[in-house]
Amino acid sequence: ILLHGFPETSHMYIPLMERLEGEGYRCLAPDQRGYSPGARPEGVENYRYHRLAEDIGAFADWMGADRFHLVGHDWGALAGWAYVCSMPERVLSWTALSVPHAQAFGTAIRNDPDQAQRSQYVQLFVQEGAAEAAFMANDWAVLKGVWSASDDAEKAEYFSVMSQPGALTAGFNWYRASNGIDPANEEIVFGEVTTPTLLIWGNQDRAIGRTGVVDGEQYMKGSYRLLELDAGHWLVQEKPEEVVDAVLAHLKANPA
Fold it and tell me: pTM score, two decimals?
């Protein structure tokens, strides 16, 4: 199961899914809560971490998979951390792209000046109305600028979704429901992780600094590997071969 982040869709995983399916894996990359027109509930409370985790379990149930491999990027990674911290017995392996353990990341946002600076954009994202207006201004210039690492076809796919009524607000609601990206006061306890974990992080990521990545290791109680790439935030687009190879090796190392 492959989980996208903001402001992308399942389309981001096409290169990875093609390789995985060629190796015999059955893959599901959903357009997540708020991104799918058939699953776009109103109300910030519908986007809290425990709701995102419930969706992951529902995806697996729909596939008929008692246990499965899980991959997540950006907010998909945060949702994935929520799931492996609450339902580890169902996850064969966990691959987080870009985002470290949610508790370590949240602590870094609060306490590390470098990460606090990198996360200032979140202060805009949580402002209802203001964030939407900023992203839609000048023919959606800010939103389109986020996709600088994507090709034209991918950009068109993302825009076709994010320009739908309510989609942009739903994407921002992931931030608003968690008070930014803060796992404090959540129904889910972001604690120790026993699931075999691979974290792939780009050392040029402007949104996610090193502190949360380093501090997250203390929560890893199962096998753990950090793969640091010379890349930014959009790892699948920037380093597709390295990401695909690493994910596939991680899956093969943790078979059913």
Answer: 0.96
Helices of type H across 179-239: 210-215, 235-238
pLDDT tens string 81-96: 999 999 999 999 999 9
Helix (H/G/I), strand (E/B), else coil: 229: strand
The string of pLDDT tens digits covering residues 160-200 is 999 999 999 999 999 999 876 776 666 888 999 999 999 99
Contact 180, 78 (CB under 8 A): no
11: domain range? 2-253
Both structure tokens of 225: 């590997």
How far apart are the C-alpha atoms of 35 and 223, rounded to whole Å? 33
CATH number for position 54: 3.40.50.1820
CA nearest to 247, candidates 11, 23, 8: 23
Domain count, the chain: 1
CB 210 within 8 A of CB 228: no
Residue 25, both tokens: 């894996």
d(CA 35, CA 63): 20
Run of H or E residues at 78? helix 75-86
Q: What is the pLDDT of residue 185?
A: 62
